[in-house]
């Protein structure tokens, strides 16, 4: 029996594999990031995502390519969406106070942009 696999079939398998892999999964996230992402998901209905996440030996958490929906609501019958993107976000001196509650000594963001959109107003970026 001979099996012929075309280039399109191989490409399809590669694309499906990469799509299924997606961004880091929740089990790969430090507890403080998981709690933050879960909270934003509850508030806005979408879970934030990122390109990469690292945790240093001292507990510093660095997130790159962060995209999160800050709020998605209706005002005067119109959809209003507020998003935040950040090239890099760093949390330092993270400590656990109790299950699901954390203290962060400092948080910095580089190239962070807040976008606000409504059907009547072009997206405003800050």
Summarize the model shown.
The chain has 2 helices and 5 strands.
Q: Which features does this protein show?
A:
126 residues; alpha+beta; five-stranded antiparallel β-sheet; 2 helices; disordered N terminus
What does this structure look like?
- The protein is of the alpha+beta class and 126 residues long.
- Helix content is 23%, strand content 47%.
- It is built from 2 helices and 5 strands.
- The chain has helices spanning 7-21, 31-44; strands at 52-55, 61-75, 78-98, 101-117, 124-125.
- The protein has a 5-stranded antiparallel beta sheet, with helices on one face.
- The longest helix is centred in the N-terminal third of the chain and has 15 residues, at 7-21.
- The radius of gyration is 19 Å and the shape is elongated.
- Residues 1-26 have low confidence and may be disordered.
**Overall morphology:** elongated
Approximately how much beta-strand content do the residues carry? over 45%
Radius of gyration based on Cα positions: 19 Å
Q: Classify the helix fraction into a percent range.
A: 10-25%
Helix-strand pattern:
HHEEEEE
Global structural class: alpha+beta
Unreliable spans are 1-26
Q: Average the pLDDT over all residues and give the rounded result.
A: 76
- Output the strand order for the largest sheet: 1-2-3-4-5
Oligomer: single chain
Distance between the termini: 62 Å
Number of helices: 2
